[in-house]
Amino acid sequence: MKKQTLIILILLAIIGGFFGAFLGIEKVLFFFILIVLAGLVLSDYQIITYALCLYPFIDYALRLFVPSFASVWDELLFMGMLLVWAYKYARYRKEDGFKQAPLDLPIILFFVAMLIVFILNSPDYKISFEGLRAVIQYMLWYFVIFQLLKDDKGAKKVCLVFVLVVSLMAIHGVYQYIIGVEMPAGWVDSKEASVRTRVFSILTSPNILGSLITLALPLCLSFGAISKGKKFKVLFYFLSFMMVACLIFTFSRGAWIGFGVAILVYVFLKDKRLLIPAIVFGVLAIVLVPGISSRITYMLSPEYIESSLRGGRLVRWITGLKILSGTPLFGVGLGHFGGAVAINNDLSYLVDTEMVKTFYMDNYYLKTAVETGIFGLFAFVMLMYQIVINGFRTIRITKDKTSRELEIGILAGLFGVIVHNFVENVFEVPMMTSCFWLLTAVLMHFWYINYKQNKID
Prior knowledge:
Elements: H1 2-23, H2 25-43, H3 50-53, H4 55-65, H5 67-70, H6 73-91, H7 104-120, H8 125-136, H9 140-148, H10 152-179, H11 206-226, H12 230-250, H13 253-270, H14 275-288, H15 290-299, H16 302-311, H17 313-326, H18 340-344, E1 348-351, E2 354-357, H19 364-397, H20 401-420, H21 430-456
Antiparallel strand pairs: 1-2
Helix pairs in contact: 1-2, 6-9, 7-8, 7-19, 9-21, 10-11, 10-12, 10-21, 11-12, 11-13, 11-20, 13-14, 13-20, 14-15, 16-17, 17-19, 19-20, 19-21, 20-21
C-alpha cells in the first residue's frame, strides 16, 4: 500500500512538473489543491462548510496575495457549495432530502419585504439592486449551510473550527497591543490620550474584531464547559481569557456592550443564579480596569457629546432621523444612504438647507430604516426576533447536554451581535454577516436533529 502511494505521488509530481513548465507552477498547484478539496468533499460533503469558518483567513490571504480574486472568492465558494448541495441531494436524497426549519419562512418573508421595497421605491435601479444584493446575499449562506450539515458531529466541528479561528485572531490582537501596533488617528478622539492603540488583528476595524469575538466567546466558554479532560478545559478557558483581553484592547465600546449582553444571555440560559454575580463582575470591570473605565467615562462626558454632535455617531443618527422623517414608509431606497453601496456611488442628500454626503450610519437598524422605511425596519426586527425565539425553542427541546451547551453559546453570541448592530453597521461587513448566518444555520441544524429525535420518540 505504501509503495502504491509512493508511486502515485511520484507520478503526480512528474505530471505536475510537466504541466508546470508550460502553464506555470501556480496554476498547477491551484489545480491540484482543487482536486484534493474535491476528493475530501466527495468523501464527506459537509467538510465544505468548514471553509466558511475560515472566512477571515481566506479573505486576508487573498487580499494580500491575489487582490483581484478577493472580491469574488466568496461568491465562487457559495456556487461551489450549491454544487455540493446538488450532489448531496442526488446521492443521499433518501437520508435527508430537503430539510426544513422554523427560520426558513421568516427569512424568505424578509426577502419578499426587501423585494417589495425594491419594486416600489428605487430612485436608481442599479444602485437599489446593489443595495438589495448587499442585504440578502450573505443571508443565503444560512440555507446552503443548513442543507449541507448532516449530523451533530459535523455541526460541532463547524463550531470548533470557528472558535479556533477567532482564538488565533484574538491571540494576534493581544500581540498587537503588546508591541503597540500603529493605528489610524481617526480611531481615537484627540482627548483620549490614554488609549495608545486599538487592535484589529487581520481585519480592517477594531469594532468588527470586537463583534467577531462577541460572536465566538460564549461558544468558546461552552466548549470549556463540555470538555471532559482537564487539559482541554484549561485550553478553552485560556482561549476565552485571550478573547476577553483582545476585546478590551479593541477599545470598541459597541462591542463591549454587545459582549456584556451576550454574557448575560449565556448566564441566564445556563444558570440564572449567576446573573447577579455576572452583573457585579461587569460593574467592577468597568470601575477597576483603567482602559474600560476611561472609555466609558469619556463617552458620558460633555466633551464626547459635543464631539459626537459635531462629527460622530450622534450627528449621524440625527441626520438619519431627519432623512427618515421625509420618507417614513419605504425610505429613500435600498443602497441609497448609510452604507457601503451609497458611499461607493458618492450619493448626497439635502438635509435642512445643506447637502450632506452619505456616511456609515453606525446603527444598522437606523440605516435599514432610512433606506427601507418603517416597513423594512419592521421586517428586519421581526427577522432578528425569529432568530432569538427559535434559538430559545431549540434549547428547550434539546435533551443532549453537549448539544444544549453549544446551542446556548451560539444563541448568546448571536444575541450580542444583534445588540451591537444598534451602534455599528456590523452587517455591512461580509465576513461578519457570513459568520452570523453560519452559526444561525448550525443552531437550526440542532433544532432539526432534536425535532427528528423527538418525533421518533
